[in-house]
Write a structure and sequence with these properties.
Elements (H helix, E strand, L loop, with lengths): L2 E3 L5 E3 L12 H20 L12 E6 L3 H16 L4 E6 L4 H7 L5 E5 L5 H9 L5 E18 H6 L12 H4 L11 E5 L8 H8 L3 E5 L3 H14 L5 E5 L9 E3 L15 E8 L2 H4 L1 H9 L4 H13 L4 H11 L1 H4 L6
Parallel strand pairs: 3-4, 3-5, 7-8
Antiparallel strand pairs: 1-2, 5-11, 6-9, 6-10, 6-11
Helix pairs in contact: 2-11, 2-12, 11-12
Length: 333
């Protein structure tokens, strides 16, 4: 079988006959030679980089299902497009599925990984010599996941400040709903989030049942409804978040895990990038490596989205307009 080059530089195969004996039809030789030359010319004019890697002009970013991730991705998208000239596609994907997609190069980067839930993913995709995911450095904000409830509930009974209080069926029952019966309800968001709520409940015999609200927006709506009536509410939640500007939420004190550590230690949020981006889109690679801002930067966008009703696109554009001194350092010279 003879393999020729197509006009876009890719190899194509056809069922071309091998020569019989020492002779081949002269017209076939001429056709093969002409197509080969065209293929070489096409390859020379293609988007291959100097080292032979195929040039990547469309950057594929992952947005996870919470506002902070969406804000990060939108800032990166606008700057990659407007300052560096790339096309950017954004895919909504949960935090677990993104690892294999980035490892294969189907997607290129995610900008807010919470490390406590991804130890095995780091081993499989970053530390593994065969992995193609690269730790692209810290995002900047420090995250803290925990259980939160209104300050007015602790004022009502200080025992609620500690998870041990929820071993008491009477106290846990203050948070009971029609869905949980005699058990107290602890709200959770998206079922795809990596969390340890059931472990905590089981490890310490807490009289609680997890109820999935379904999303970050649903958790905020639950806070809004509870605070309006000063009703009990207990929920998985996290900082940084603009909700703390609106609701007086107190983090519940959780006991140590069986190994003596914290279920939810403070988290240095970090970024992950497909290794192939370094050769295929070096300017985007360097930009994503350097992308870093403060907790206050992120919270300012979250406040605009959650508090002022701005779109993610508007909040990111406003941040970019006001913070050129920060983001200009991310643009490769």
């Amino acid at each position: 079988m003879l393999k020729l080059a197509s006009l876009d530089g890719r190899a194509v195969s056809g069922n071309y006959p091998e020569p019989e004996g020492h002779f081949m039809n002269r017209s076939l030789w001429k056709l093969a030679a002409a197509l080969a030359v065209l293929g070489l010319l096409a390859g020379a004019c293609s988007g291959d980089s100097d080292d032979g890697a195929e040039e990547i002009t469309t950057i594929k970013l992952v947005a996870n299902p919470w506002s902070g991730s969406a804000a990060n991705i939108e800032v990166a998208k606008q700057l990659l497009e407007n300052e560096l000239g790339y096309t950017v596609e954004v895919t909504d994907l949960d935090e677990n599925a993104q690892w294999s997609a980035i490892n294969t190069g189907e997607l290129h980067a995610s900008l807010e990984v919470w490390p406590s839930g991804h130890g095995q993913n780091r081993v499989d995709f970053i530390d593994n010599p065969d992995g193609n995911v690269v730790d692209a450095g810290l995002l900047g904000p420090i995250g803290q996941i925990g259980w939160y409830l209104p300050a007015y509930m602790i004022d009502q009974d200080p025992a609620l400040a500690n998870a041990e209080g929820f071993t008491d069926p009477a106290l846990a029952g203050l948070f009971a709903t029609a869905e949980t019966g005699d058990l107290g309800q602890i709200l959770h968001g998206d079922p795809s989030w990596v969390t340890f709520e059931q472990d905590i409940i089981d490890d310490f015999g807490l009289q609680l049942e997890i109820v999935y609200a379904g999303s970050e927006e649903a958790l905020l709506a639950a806070f809004d409804a509870a605070f309006a009536r000063e009703d009990p509410v207990l929920s998985y939640f996290w900082t940084p978040h603009s909700a703390f500007n609106t609701f007086d939420l107190v983090e519940l004190e959780l006991p140590p895990n069986p190994d003596g550590g914290k279920y939810y230690p403070s988290e240095d949020l970090f970024k992950i990038v497909w290794a192939g981006l370094e050769d295929g889109a070096p300017a985007a690679w360097q930009f994503l490596q350097d992308f870093n801002y403060s907790t206050a930067d992120q919270v300012s966008m979250l406040a605009a989205i959650d508090g002022e009703g701005k779109s993610v696109e508007e909040a990111a554009a406003d941040w970019i307009a006001a913070n050129e001194a920060t983001w200009s350092a991310w643009i490769p010279s």
